[in-house]
Amino acid sequence: MKYIDLHTDALTKEGVLSVTEESLKKGGCFLECFACFTPRGGLCETLKLCNKFEKMCVSSGYRWVKRAEDLEGEGIHAMLTVEGGEAVEGNIKNLHLLHEKGVRMMTLVWNFDNDIGGTHGGRAVGRTSTAHPVPRAHPERSEGSHRLTDFVLGDSSVASLPQNERVSTDFVQGPSVASLPQNERVSTDFVLGDSSVASLPQNERRSLGLTPFGREVVERMGELRMLVDVSHGSDALFFDVAAWSRKSGIPFVASHSNARAVCAHTRNLSDREIKILADCGGVMGLNFYDEFLSSDKSAAGQKSALIAQISHILKVGGEDVLAIGSDFDGIPQNAYLKTAADMPRFLEDMCEIFPSRVVEKLAHANAERVIREGVG
Ligand SMILES: [Zn+2]
């Protein structure tokens, strides 16, 4: 069965890779989304990775997907993406440049707040640059560092917190954030401006959603037909993007995020987020990072966790929201799925549990639908 993978860091990683021409061929990959992830942020480094991608497509014979019609034909297809909107460097012209270079999806934030919006876990980070401040420090590369703390665990526990401790936004979002009274929109308008978030009292450090510049970026991405990716984002950022998606009718994605109800980590999506994502016609890519799956790191434990994830997402969001976002080469090897060559075994295993129709949707049909709609 062919598959689409919405996220790999193979462009960035040096050394032995899980995603190679050989492993993609063995795995039956139809489309791999290669992310430009630059630990130091910047446009210049991102453009170097764009050039690397272009050369790789030529040398490996990948079919470069820039629009829906490029999804035709046999062979391995490749799409260029960016992980971390700090690549835009606060200048909307750079977004246009990235689009010209062939970028068709961008993860708005990585593991720190940037000038576009807030990261998962509701961290408030100081800001520096002049036009649209960016973070001072870049943490070491690690896929996710925030274990879910008690106060953001699940919707019900949040609801029971005293008002001044509800620092995540789960409790205010509903079908439409835009319809909320102004004083209930706890997304981050109030923390924008030049004053540092870090100086806010603890109970006002609510998670950062989209900044005004972030809203401009998202709207422009919609116009350019570049998919908006909320993986790594805060809950507030998720709901801000969802409100835009409802208004514009353009689907968005969480390219490599699992379900929080099955594995409590801020990198994973809450049930309400999964429902809204499905309602907006988007997809979430199953992430193979064992930290986002289960404390049982054995092959059997990881397989069970993936089955639990799929079962839960099916129940909550339905079969049209499922996709794959392996995160190969951005994560330590998963004991169950080590490389792209393991994908046929994974899909066969899933066919023993779920109807083949569902596995086809998970493997490629849903992601293809969203890419066709979003990239045009
Ligand atoms: Zn990532």
What distinguishing features does this structure have?
six-stranded parallel beta sheet, binds zinc ion, 9 strands, 11% strand, 376 residues, three-stranded parallel beta sheet
Task: Give your account of this protein's structure.
This protein is of the alpha/beta class. It has a single domain, classed as Metal-dependent hydrolases (TIM Barrel, Alpha-Beta Barrel). Helix content is 34%, strand content 11%. Strands 1, 2, 3, 4, 5 and 6 form a 6-stranded parallel beta sheet that branches. Helix 3 runs parallel beside helix 5, helix 5 crosses helix 6 and helix 9 crosses helix 10. The longest helix is centred in the C-terminal third of the chain and has 20 residues. The two termini are 25 Å apart. Zinc ion binds next to loops.
SSE topology:
Elements: E1 3-8, H1 21-27, E2 29-37, H2 43-60, E3 63-64, E4 77-83, H3 92-100, E5 103-107, H4 154-159, H5 212-224, E6 227-229, H6 235-248, E7 253-254, H7 271-279, E8 283-286, H8 299-317, E9 322-324, H9 343-353, H10 356-375
Parallel strand pairs: 1-2, 2-4, 3-4, 4-5, 5-6, 7-8, 8-9
Helix pairs in contact: 3-5, 5-6, 9-10
The protein binds zinc ion (ZN).
Zinc ion (ZN) is lined by residues 83, 143, 232, 256, 327, 330.
